[in-house]
UniProtKB/TrEMBL annotation:
Entry protein name: Trehalose 6-phosphate phosphatase
Cofactor(s) named in the record: Mg(2+)
Coiled-coil regions listed in the entry: none
Domain of life of the source: Bacteria
Catalytic activity: alpha,alpha-trehalose 6-phosphate + H2O = alpha,alpha-trehalose + phosphate
NCBIfam families: HAD-SF-IIB, T6PP
Gene designation per UniProt: otsB
One GO term (biological process): trehalose biosynthetic process
UniProt pathway annotation: Glycan biosynthesis; trehalose biosynthesis
Keyword line: Hydrolase, Magnesium, Metal-binding
């Protein structure tokens, strides 16, 4: 798989646009709660939502309540927790999996599993848990081993590697599944899907977009199956603005 190097074409008005959050709309921060919202992001998303007739979705590993705290007036659909939850109307949140999960026990077990490594950040999620080892990348193997044990102890949960993190999410979810589900739903259905993201977790969603005749845009470095690439969130913002001025 050769890394893509081409810049994406400006968007036309008939696309369905799926955007990751961390490393895509905002720069990666040392901790998930330390991201900074770039100037003009709210207005850009509002304008895209209008121009694409509502076919705009956030697709993130973060849960929807967390995403709403950063983008309180986001007008589009939100698929959170790696597709395990979905908000179509901006207010209600539906569970999008059928795993019977004792989430409190999972969170407690995760905290216990890495309690001797305080530099591993435990992020409880409504449908899973993440261990972040960005503060000390040498602890990657420790975090991964802990998560493998947790996956065995909590049937139905599967490993999801991410940037400087490893997560557990319900089996049968994922960002690709979220895109597939939305592409069967108005106003996304019948449009050409375009998916932009920076992480390993985005690759399956970009594969879905490309299988539906659209394209993926990889943000940043690293191997990717995306047809196109942009170097960072700021380049993504400029591309979206060019699309608003010209194509879309
Ligand atoms: Mg990301």
């Amino acid at each position: 798989m050769q890394p893509s190097v081409l810049s994406p074409p400006v968007l036309s008005a008939d696309v369905a646009l799926f955007l990751d959050f961390d490393g895509c709309l905002v720069d990666i921060a040392p901790r998930p709660d330390a991201v900074e919202i770039p100037h003009g992001l709210f207005q850009r998303l509002d304008r895209l939502h209008d121009r694409l007739n509502g076919a705009l979705a956030l697709v993130s590993g973060r849960d929807i309540a967390d995403l709403r705290s950063w983008l309180p007036d986001f007008p589009g659909v939100i698929a959170g927790s790696h597709g395990a939850e979905l908000s179509l109307d901006g207010t209600t949140i539906q569970k999008a999996h059928d795993i019977d999960l004792d989430v409190a026990a999972l969170h407690a077990d995760a905290a216990q599993a890495v309690s001797v490594h305080p530099s591993i950040l435990v992020e409880p999620k409504p449908h899973g848990v993440a261990l972040h080892y960005r503060a000390d990348p040498s602890l990657r193997a420790v975090a991964e081993a802990a998560m493998r044990r947790l996956a065995r102890a909590h049937p139905g949960m599967i490993l999801q590697p991410a940037k400087m993190a490893i997560e557990l999410r319900p089996a049968g979810t994922g960002k690709g599944g979220a895109v597939e589900r939305l592409m069967a739903t108005p106003p996304f259905g019948g449009r050409t899907p375009v998916y932009a993201g920076d992480d390993l977790t985005d690759e399956e969603a970009m594969a879905v977009a490309q299988a539906y005749g659209g394209f993926g845009v990889k943000i940043g470095e690293g191997e990717s199956l995306a047809f196109y690439r942009l170097p960072d969130p700021s380049a993504l913002a400029q591309w979206l603005d060019r699309s608003l001025q010209g194509g879309a």
